[in-house]
Each structure stands twice: as C-alpha cells, then as structure tokens.
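In response to reviewer comment 3 from the previous cycle, which asked for concrete evidence that the modeling workflow produces usable outputs, we include below a single protein chain processed end to end. The sequence was submitted unchanged, and the resulting structure tokens are shown without manual editing.
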Amino acid sequence: SLETPPAHIESKSVPFRKTNTLIYWQDRARGDAPASNDELARMPRSVQAVYLKPLKRKAQHGYPSCDLQLRSYSVRNVEFYADFALRAAYYLHLPALGPIPLPRITERWTVPRSNFVNKKSQENFERITSRRLIQVLDGHPETVEIWLAFLRRHVYYGVGMKANIWEHESLGVGKTMDVSLENLKENLEPKWAHFGRRKNPATSERVYDMMNEDSLRHNSDAPLSG
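The workflow returned the following structure tokens.
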C-alpha cells in the first residue's frame, strides 16, 4: 500500500500513503496514522471537527438554563444525537455539559405462549431504555429556544427528548407582574363584554356610527338615539 512520494515532498521519514484524506483522518482518529500530517493534504477545519470530539464552551457563572434528556432504545442512536446536540450548542455559543449517562430503564414482560394445558410455557420480553443528559449553563432564554427548535427540526429517528428550562428574573419582578396584570385586565374587559358574540367592539362602534349617519336619519321617521 506504499508508493514513492511526490517530488514536492522532501521529507521521507513518513511514508506516503496511497489513500485519500478522508481515510487518513479516520486512521488518525484510531491512532493508526502518523503523528505528522504535513505530507498529506489538509481537510477544512469544519470537516476535521467531524472526526474529533465536540467542542465545548466554558461556563462563566454556572447558572443552569436547560436540562435536555435524550431517550432511545438504541445506544447508537442516542449517542449520535447527543453528539449532534453538543455541536449545535457550541456553534450557538451555549456552554454545555455532557452527555451524562443516566441509569437505564429496564422493563420486562412475561407472556404465555399458549393457553389451557400449555399455560406453563411462557415467553419473556425485555426492553431497555438508554438515557443521556445534556446541561446548558449561562444560556440566554431565546438562544436556548432556538437550540431546542433546531433539535426538534432535525430530530433523529428513535430518539425522544425532554427539556427542563429555567428562566431567571431580576429582583422585584412581582411588582412588575402586578402592573402588567392590571393592564391586561383593562385590555380584556371590552373583549369579555362581547364574549360569545360574532362581533367585536370595533364592529359594534362601526354599526352605531352607520346608523347615526344623516342619510339614514332622513329616511327614518324618528331619529335614532344612543
């Protein structure tokens, strides 16, 4: 599998491999390729990152923002999707920890194979659910929502997700909520007055103005009163 290196390669300490760059980086991941890769063509950084562990950002304060739990009956699927979620968190500038293995959920059932005299002939079934946990720290609520929406859009088959989100507010948020509640009540009172009808306040006011027009007053015997 070896051949003479090209003319532009001066160093002959590392033999030239008759292989493409993709196989080379696969060998590097397994530790079979030489430590120096100057003799071979380099791949783009984004492609090289696919064969390496996901990059992670360090949390500055350590405040929890989201706990994402992944579940699947296949370990391969849940590991692949956890890797995908960590890479997406890195490019969205979200500090993430994981994947943290959680205890497996084991379920077993015993079903009779037949009835009557063959009742003692039974069959056992087992189902194991693998779980992984990804924790996002110091994340902005809007960025976390974008991250979760991206994961839902590109969900991997056979993988379920469950997310717990924390939102942090400043001190005195209770007073702000009381003021917003009063404003909400004032805006809802006109709508509740017409609840169950096929018209809104704007429609009723428009009808009242139309009935008080001069052209309609001349055609009627008596003037309309409010």
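The radius of gyration is 33 Å. We consider this sufficient to address the reviewer's concern, and the full set will be provided in the supplementary archive.
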